[in-house]
Amino acid sequence: MKNNFLLVLVLVFVNFFSVFAQSILDGLNYSSNSYQGTARFNSMSGAFGALGGDLSAIAVNPAGSAVFNNGHFSISFGSENKANQASLLNASNNFDKNSLTLNQIGGVITFENLEKDKNWSKISLGISYNQTKNNFNEFSIYNISNSNSIDSYFLNNADGLRLDQISAFEGESITEAYIDIGNVYGFSHQQAFLGYESFIIEPLEYTNENSSYYSNVQSGIFNQTYRSISRGYNGKLTANIGLQYNDHLYFGLNLNSHFIDYDNYTILNEINDNGESGQFRINGIYFENKLSTFGEGFSAQFGMISKISDVLRLGFTYDTPTWFTITEETTQYLETSMVDEFDQNSLLITNPNAINIYEDYKIQMPSKITASGALVFKNFGLISFDYSRKDYTSMKFKPENDSYFSELNHEINLMLREINTYRFGAEIISDRFSFRGGFMTEDSPYKSTDNNIDDSINGFSLGIGYKLNQSTIDLSYVKTNRLNYKRLFDTGLTNQVQLETDNSMLTISISTIF
Asked: Phi/psi zone of residue 353: left (φ > 0), alpha (ψ -120 to 50 degrees), beta?
C-alpha cells in the first residue's frame, strides 16, 4: 500500500443521481443467485421444486415446508474455493482463493389439524436464512503489454469540461477541491480533476473556458498490472407459511428480505519508458479504486406442489420481482511518477482522502417462474427436475425519469434476454445412507456474444448423507464453471479481462427432527 488509502477524513454527500456509472454488469451481479444451502440441496444441484422437505428447498418453492411431517432444524457450513484464470491481451494468470461460509440456518414447525375430517390437514411456519451469493473473489494479471494507457480514462472524463470546473481554487487543498467538485459537478469532473492535479493531462490553454486537453503520457507500449479484490455476501432471510390440502396438495408463501454486501477494490499499476530525454513525461501511474455497495430488498414467492400419485410430484413457483435500494460509496488514490526536462525523477501523490457517498437508487430485478417434476420411489430414491425462466429485459434502474438510468434501461432491452435454467438431481437410499448427484446449466443473459460477452454457468454436484435416529449428517461437493468479462474502466482504458472461474464448494449440514 502506497499510503494510508483507507484513512477517512471527510465524507462527501452527492445530491443528484447518476454521478457514478452504474452498469448492466452491476444489475446482473446483484440479481444472480447460487443458492448455497443445505448439503442435500446442493448435492442435487438445487432441483427441489417438486420435493420440499428441506430447509433450502423452501427458498425455491415455499410449499415445500408443508411436506415436513415434524418440526425440522438445520444448519450448514461451507468451504468454497474459487480458481480464476484471468487473461488480458498477451498476459494471463491463475489465482486460487478459499473462504468459509455459513450457507444456511433455519427451522420449520408444523401443526396438524386434529379434526381429521377437515380438508386443510396441516399448517407449517418457518424462518430461514440462505446465502445467495459469495462475493469473495480475487484475481491479478501481471506484465500486460498494452498500447493503451490509463491516461485515456482521465482524458475522456475531461473532454469538454471547463478548466475552472476541474481545478482547485488558490489555497484550496486536494481534499477540499475533490469534495467541492464532486458535490457541484459529479464523478466525471472528479476524475478529470485527479488527472489534472497529477499532471497526467494538461489544458491546451490555461484559461477558465478551456475544454480541450492533452496527455503528458507519451505514446508507446505500457507495462500494466491489474488486480481486483472482492469481498462480501448476498443473502436472503425468509419467513414462510405452508398449507397442506388433503393428502395431495401443498401451498406456500415466502416473504423475503434480501441484502447485498459487496466491496470491490482494484489496483492498476502502469509503467513505461516512452518519450525522449529532455522532455517532460509521465513514466508511471498507480491508481486505486474502491467501491462499496450496500443493498436492501424485498420479494415474495408463491408456490404449490401436487402429489399426482405415490410416485409422481409436480411443482410450480412464481417469484415476484425483487425491489432493491442500493447505496454506493467510492474512494480513490493516485500516484504519478514524472521525469522532468532535466531527466530527474519525482513522485507525486494525489490522495483525496475522502469518501464519495452517493444518493440511493433503486433496481427492480426480474421475476421468475419455476416448473418442477419429481419421481419418488419409496425406500429406494428419487429423480427430480427444475426448469426456471427469468426475463432480464424487465430489469430496471430507477428512478426511470433520470436521463442516465433511462439510457441504461434502454441498453438492457437491447443487450439482455430471457434465460433458462435447468437443474437435475437424483438420490439413492441404502439403509441409513443416501447417495446423491446432480447437474445444472444456466443460459447467458446476453443476447449476443459478438462483443466477447458471456455469463453462462454449468456445474455438477455429488453428495452423501447418513441418518442417525432423529438427526442427519449430509456432505456435498459442488463444482461450477463460469466465463465472464470485466472491463478495466468504463471509459478510455476499456480492455476486457476474460475471467474463467471454477467454483468448488464443500458443504456439511446437520439436521434434526423435533
From this structure: left
Q: What is the dihedral of CA 202, 208, 211, 217, to 10 degrees?
A: 0
Q: Give the residue from 150, 412, 156 showing the smallest Cα distance to 268.
A: 150
What mean pLDDT comes out for the span 337-341?
94
Q: Are 444 and 418 in contact (CB under 8 A)?
A: no
What three-state secondary structure class fits 507?
Answer: strand
CATH value at residue 336: 2.40.160.60
**CA–CA separation, 303 and 246 (whole Å):** 17
Q: Is the Cα dihedral 402, 408, 411, 417 positive or negative?
A: negative
49 within 8 A of 393, measured Cβ to Cβ: no
- Averaged pLDDT of the chain: 91
**Phi/psi of residue 25, nearest 5 degrees:** -60, -35
pTM assigned to the model: 0.88
Q: Which domain holds residue 54?
A: 10-78+92-147+219-513
Rounded CA-CA distance 386/303 in Å is 13
